[in-house]
Protein backbone atom coordinates (compact mmCIF):
# COMPACT_ATOMS: atom_id res chain seq x y z
CA UNK A 1 0.00 0.00 0.00
CA UNK A 2 1.32 3.44 -0.97
CA UNK A 3 0.12 6.35 1.19
CA UNK A 4 0.09 9.64 -0.74
CA UNK A 5 -2.18 11.85 1.41
CA UNK A 6 -2.99 12.06 5.12
CA UNK A 7 -5.88 14.30 6.18
CA UNK A 8 -6.95 14.25 9.83
CA UNK A 9 -8.13 16.25 12.83
CA UNK A 10 -6.06 14.48 15.49
CA UNK A 11 -2.60 15.40 16.66
CA UNK A 12 0.29 13.86 14.76
CA UNK A 13 1.72 10.72 16.34
CA UNK A 14 4.76 8.72 15.26
CA UNK A 15 3.88 8.71 11.57
CA UNK A 16 6.81 8.11 9.23
CA UNK A 17 6.93 7.73 5.45
CA UNK A 18 9.63 6.63 3.03
CA UNK A 19 8.86 9.56 0.73
CA UNK A 20 7.28 13.02 1.16
CA UNK A 21 3.47 12.91 1.24
CA UNK A 22 0.67 15.46 1.38
CA UNK A 23 -0.30 16.19 5.00
CA UNK A 24 -3.18 18.31 6.24
CA UNK A 25 -4.06 18.40 9.92
CA UNK A 26 -6.47 20.93 11.42
CA UNK A 27 -7.77 21.31 14.99
CA UNK A 28 -11.43 20.82 14.08
CA UNK A 29 -14.11 18.46 15.33
CA UNK A 30 -14.25 16.21 12.28
CA UNK A 31 -12.12 15.32 9.27
CA UNK A 32 -15.21 15.80 7.09
CA UNK A 33 -14.95 19.51 7.86
CA UNK A 34 -11.47 19.55 6.29
CA UNK A 35 -12.65 17.50 3.30
CA UNK A 36 -15.46 19.97 2.65
CA UNK A 37 -12.95 22.82 2.77
CA UNK A 38 -10.85 21.03 0.15
CA UNK A 39 -13.90 20.64 -2.10
CA UNK A 40 -14.61 24.37 -1.84
CA UNK A 41 -10.98 25.45 -2.22
CA UNK A 42 -10.86 23.55 -5.51
CA UNK A 43 -14.28 24.80 -6.70
CA UNK A 44 -15.65 21.25 -6.79
CA UNK A 45 -19.39 20.65 -6.57
CA UNK A 46 -20.69 18.54 -3.71
CA UNK A 47 -23.70 16.43 -4.69
CA UNK A 48 -26.52 15.52 -2.33
CA UNK A 49 -25.18 12.06 -1.50
CA UNK A 50 -21.73 13.36 -0.63
CA UNK A 51 -23.19 16.26 1.37
CA UNK A 52 -25.32 13.76 3.29
CA UNK A 53 -22.26 11.65 4.14
CA UNK A 54 -20.17 14.66 5.17
CA UNK A 55 -23.03 16.05 7.27
CA UNK A 56 -23.52 12.70 9.00
CA UNK A 57 -19.81 12.47 9.80
CA UNK A 58 -19.74 15.94 11.36
CA UNK A 59 -22.89 15.29 13.40
CA UNK A 60 -21.46 12.00 14.66
CA UNK A 61 -17.97 13.22 15.49
CA UNK A 62 -19.07 16.47 17.16
CA UNK A 63 -22.18 14.98 18.82
CA UNK A 64 -24.29 17.48 16.88
CA UNK A 65 -21.86 20.30 17.69
CA UNK A 66 -22.00 19.64 21.46
CA UNK A 67 -18.60 18.01 21.86
CA UNK A 68 -15.74 20.13 23.29
CA UNK A 69 -13.89 19.38 20.04
CA UNK A 70 -16.40 21.44 18.03
CA UNK A 71 -15.08 24.59 16.34
CA UNK A 72 -16.63 27.48 14.43
CA UNK A 73 -15.34 25.87 11.25
CA UNK A 74 -17.45 22.77 11.98
CA UNK A 75 -20.52 24.94 12.57
CA UNK A 76 -20.03 26.93 9.37
CA UNK A 77 -19.38 23.85 7.24
CA UNK A 78 -22.42 22.06 8.67
CA UNK A 79 -24.57 25.10 7.92
CA UNK A 80 -23.27 25.02 4.34
CA UNK A 81 -23.82 21.26 3.87
CA UNK A 82 -27.30 20.75 5.33
CA UNK A 83 -29.25 22.47 2.50
CA UNK A 84 -27.28 20.50 -0.10
CA UNK A 85 -27.93 17.26 1.81
CA UNK A 86 -31.66 18.18 1.91
CA UNK A 87 -32.09 17.20 5.55
CA UNK A 88 -35.26 18.94 6.74
CA UNK A 89 -34.93 18.41 10.50
CA UNK A 90 -31.28 18.17 11.45
CA UNK A 91 -31.97 17.62 15.17
CA UNK A 92 -34.35 14.74 14.48
CA UNK A 93 -31.90 13.16 12.05
CA UNK A 94 -29.01 13.49 14.52
CA UNK A 95 -31.05 11.84 17.28
CA UNK A 96 -32.03 8.97 14.96
CA UNK A 97 -28.39 8.48 14.08
CA UNK A 98 -27.33 8.48 17.74
CA UNK A 99 -30.02 5.92 18.57
CA UNK A 100 -28.80 3.69 15.74
CA UNK A 101 -25.22 3.99 17.04
CA UNK A 102 -26.47 2.93 20.47
CA UNK A 103 -28.06 -0.30 19.25
CA UNK A 104 -25.30 -2.75 20.18
CA UNK A 105 -27.36 -5.80 21.10
CA UNK A 106 -25.86 -7.77 18.20
CA UNK A 107 -22.31 -6.93 19.31
CA UNK A 108 -20.21 -9.00 21.69
CA UNK A 109 -18.66 -7.30 24.72
CA UNK A 110 -15.26 -7.63 23.06
CA UNK A 111 -16.56 -5.88 19.94
CA UNK A 112 -18.07 -3.09 22.03
CA UNK A 113 -14.79 -2.59 23.89
CA UNK A 114 -12.81 -2.33 20.66
CA UNK A 115 -15.31 -0.36 18.52
CA UNK A 116 -13.78 3.00 19.44
CA UNK A 117 -10.51 2.02 21.05
CA UNK A 118 -6.99 3.44 20.88
CA UNK A 119 -3.67 2.76 22.54
CA UNK A 120 -1.51 5.49 24.04
CA UNK A 121 1.97 5.53 25.52
CA UNK A 122 2.51 7.33 28.82
CA UNK A 123 6.03 7.31 30.29
CA UNK A 124 6.94 4.38 28.02
CA UNK A 125 3.96 2.37 29.26
CA UNK A 126 1.12 1.39 26.94
CA UNK A 127 -2.50 2.03 27.89
CA UNK A 128 -5.72 1.13 26.08
CA UNK A 129 -8.55 3.68 26.16
CA UNK A 130 -11.97 2.74 24.78
CA UNK A 131 -15.21 4.69 24.47
CA UNK A 132 -18.77 3.46 24.06
CA UNK A 133 -21.26 6.15 23.03
CA UNK A 134 -24.90 5.50 23.85
CA UNK A 135 -28.30 7.12 24.27
CA UNK A 136 -29.14 4.69 27.07
CA UNK A 137 -26.35 4.26 29.59
CA UNK A 138 -28.27 1.60 31.54
CA UNK A 139 -28.20 -0.82 28.61
CA UNK A 140 -24.43 -0.56 28.44
CA UNK A 141 -24.10 -0.86 32.22
CA UNK A 142 -26.06 -4.13 32.10
CA UNK A 143 -22.98 -5.57 30.35
CA UNK A 144 -20.52 -4.09 32.84
CA UNK A 145 -19.26 -7.41 34.23
CA UNK A 146 -18.66 -8.85 30.75
CA UNK A 147 -16.95 -5.64 29.65
CA UNK A 148 -14.65 -5.75 32.69
CA UNK A 149 -13.74 -9.36 31.85
CA UNK A 150 -12.92 -8.36 28.27
CA UNK A 151 -10.83 -5.47 29.56
CA UNK A 152 -8.74 -7.87 31.64
CA UNK A 153 -8.31 -10.14 28.61
CA UNK A 154 -7.29 -7.27 26.32
CA UNK A 155 -4.88 -5.95 28.94
CA UNK A 156 -3.13 -9.32 29.09
CA UNK A 157 -3.37 -10.00 25.35
CA UNK A 158 -1.81 -6.66 24.38
CA UNK A 159 0.60 -6.42 27.33
CA UNK A 160 -0.92 -3.15 28.55
CA UNK A 161 -0.03 -1.33 31.74
CA UNK A 162 -3.63 -0.21 32.08
CA UNK A 163 -6.97 -0.11 30.28
CA UNK A 164 -10.04 2.10 30.63
CA UNK A 165 -13.47 2.07 29.01
CA UNK A 166 -15.73 5.12 29.14
CA UNK A 167 -19.49 4.72 28.74
CA UNK A 168 -20.61 8.09 27.37
CA UNK A 169 -24.24 9.19 27.31
CA UNK A 170 -24.29 11.44 24.24
CA UNK A 171 -27.67 12.95 25.13
CA UNK A 172 -27.11 13.71 28.82
CA UNK A 173 -23.38 14.36 28.25
CA UNK A 174 -22.25 12.07 31.05
CA UNK A 175 -19.25 9.76 31.41
CA UNK A 176 -19.02 6.64 33.57
CA UNK A 177 -15.65 4.92 33.19
CA UNK A 178 -15.03 1.25 34.00
CA UNK A 179 -12.00 0.61 36.23
CA UNK A 180 -10.76 -3.01 36.03
CA UNK A 181 -7.92 -2.95 38.57
CA UNK A 182 -5.86 -1.22 41.23
CA UNK A 183 -3.42 0.37 38.77
CA UNK A 184 -6.23 2.01 36.82
CA UNK A 185 -7.99 3.01 40.05
CA UNK A 186 -4.95 4.85 41.40
CA UNK A 187 -4.33 6.68 38.14
CA UNK A 188 -7.95 7.75 37.57
CA UNK A 189 -8.40 8.86 41.18
CA UNK A 190 -5.41 11.17 40.98
CA UNK A 191 -5.72 12.31 37.35
CA UNK A 192 -9.39 13.26 37.61
CA UNK A 193 -9.77 13.79 41.37
CA UNK A 194 -12.69 11.36 41.58
CA UNK A 195 -13.57 8.30 43.64
CA UNK A 196 -14.20 4.82 42.29
CA UNK A 197 -17.27 3.02 43.64
CA UNK A 198 -17.56 -0.64 44.62
CA UNK A 199 -18.96 -1.45 41.17
CA UNK A 200 -15.58 -0.47 39.63
CA UNK A 201 -17.03 2.71 38.10
CA UNK A 202 -15.61 6.24 38.13
CA UNK A 203 -18.04 9.09 37.49
CA UNK A 204 -16.11 11.49 35.25
CA UNK A 205 -19.01 13.90 34.96
CA UNK A 206 -19.34 15.72 31.66
CA UNK A 207 -15.96 14.68 30.27
CA UNK A 208 -17.28 13.23 27.02
CA UNK A 209 -14.31 13.85 24.71
CA UNK A 210 -11.41 11.41 24.86
CA UNK A 211 -9.24 13.71 22.75
CA UNK A 212 -9.97 16.97 24.60
CA UNK A 213 -10.76 15.87 28.16
CA UNK A 214 -9.57 12.34 28.96
CA UNK A 215 -6.16 12.03 27.29
CA UNK A 216 -4.92 15.53 28.30
CA UNK A 217 -5.71 14.79 31.96
CA UNK A 218 -3.85 11.48 31.79
CA UNK A 219 -0.91 13.09 29.98
CA UNK A 220 -0.69 15.79 32.66
CA UNK A 221 -0.78 13.18 35.42
CA UNK A 222 1.95 11.01 33.89
CA UNK A 223 4.08 14.06 33.04
CA UNK A 224 3.95 15.07 36.69
CA UNK A 225 4.96 11.55 37.71
CA UNK A 226 7.92 11.36 35.31
Automatic annotation (TrEMBL):
Cofactor list: Mn(2+)
Catalytic reaction list: diphosphate + H2O = 2 phosphate + H(+)
Gene3D superfamilies in the cross-refs: DHHA2 domain, inorganic pyrophosphatase (n-terminal core)
Entry keywords, A to Z: Hydrolase, Manganese, Metal-binding
Cross-referenced Pfam families: DHHA2
E.C. no: 3.6.1.1
Iron in keyword set: no
InterPro entries: DHH_sf, DHHA2, DHHA2_dom_sf
Entry superkingdom: Eukaryota
Annotated family: Belongs to the PPase class C family. Prune subfamily.
Cited PANTHER family: BNIP - RELATED (PTHR12112), MANGANESE-DEPENDENT INORGANIC PYROPHOSPHATASE-RELATED (PTHR12112:SF22)
Protein name stated in the entry: inorganic diphosphatase
Organism, as annotated: Adineta steineri
Lineage: Eukaryota, Metazoa, Spiralia, Gnathifera, Rotifera
